[in-house]
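Cross-check.
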Amino acid sequence: MENYLSTYRLIQTYFRMKTEQLIAVSNQAVVEHPTLKGTHRENLIDIYLKEILPKRLAIDKGMVYGFVNKSKESDLVIWDEQNFPCLRLLGHSMFFIESVKAIMEVKTKWSLKEFNDIKKKKNASFKIHRLPQTPNLESRMQMLESKIEAIEQNETINAIFYTPIPVPFIAFIFHGGEKFTIDSLNDDELKSINESYPDLMIFLKSGKILEKQYIYDEGDSSIGYSYLNLHEAGDNALLIFTSLLLEKLMINTSFSEYPINFIKYGPPFYQHEIKRVPFPINGKFPGIYNAAKI
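Predicted model, tokenized:
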């Protein structure tokens, strides 16, 4: 138990030190100087993301293109550089939805104006569509599991359907958000969450994390429950955010091993308050293989 606690304390200390570094960098961007404002995103990459993300994932800036739509200009694009190409143009790079694991927007200060900008960019990325693809390793495993389940229940699979999951949209806010709450969202705002709210957002200095969570029904994989969670994580916000980010990066990605979850090193020593509100989804839940059986 003593070694277990020691390990978690070291992890906790690491992320708290990184938080202090990132806030120090963001304070440079607050200064009214164009060069400093323009480089704080690069500093974020150098100090944190490049150190924590798996090496197969590269970080660049540009626009993400799909079969039909494209994203807005993105502060950061996290993509699989080892297995996919991109097209680099003068002052601009074209990334394709098949290679992109997350789009990230970075804001120095929180405001409703900045949040509206985040929502517009999220909405644009939500509409990007992939070309029809041949099954990858993960989809083949899902199909195999469905077939085994059908055999065990003496059923026949007629078809398997898959609704692609939109590329995760991440927002990183350095300052502000202390009064941000989800307690009084009206019906119109709740209806907009699925398409317009970021999948994950951190208010670094105020220690809050906003997360969209989808829980699938065990009996019917075409339906489920969708929640908007507000984590009051305090000094552990970056630790929680990083674990949730690594999980989001698994979407549309095949890993031989499940990515590490730093949160699991904490219980029973760490707890924080989580507020939750359900929000509606029009249409089917994304990313689930729905086996039509006869």
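The radius of gyration is 20 Å. Residues 243 and 264 are 9 Å apart (CA to CA). Passed to J.P. for a second look.
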